[in-house]
Amino acid sequence: MSSEYKQDIKELLSFVEYSLKSGVFLVEGFSRCALYDINSGNVYSLDKNAQDVLTGRSKNTNFWKKLVSMGLCTDKNHLEKQILSELEYKPSLQFA
Fold first, then answer.
1. Using one digit for the tens of pLDDT, what is the confidence trace for 65-93?
2. CA angle, corner 27, sides to 38 and 17, nearest 5?
3. CA nearest 81: which of 16, 23, 9, 13?
4. Structure letter (DSSP) for residue 29
5. In the chain, domain spans
6. Alpha-carbon span 80 to 76, nearest angstrom
């Protein structure tokens, strides 16, 4: 008997006055999650507590402020362009 777990990629997540920047994606796993910043190429592995904050199941304004200082999120009034749909529809690879 096999169990399947579907990963879900979330873009432009927001909570109260904070929102992930365009190009920063939350990928949830079974016990952890990760933030993928395709603007810089960095990947941040996060624990379940961070996952709960990012998905709105828990509140932690200090965590969001830390993400702002790292350049991963901004205040909600700053409009960001969604890019996930562009990546899905233009999956061609380019080599230098």
1. 999 999 999 876 555 555 445 445 444 55
2. 80
3. 23
4. -
5. 9-80
6. 9
Largest CA distance in the chain: 48
Mind listing the pLDDT tens digit for each residue in 33-59?
999 999 999 999 999 999 999 988 898
CA distance 35 to 24: 7
Per the confidence metrics, is the pTM higher than 0.90?
no
Q: Which residues are within 8 A (CB) of 81 and not within 5 positions of it... i.e. 6 or more apart?
A: 22
Structure tokens at 92: 């061609």
Phi, psi of 37 (to 5 degrees): -105, 95
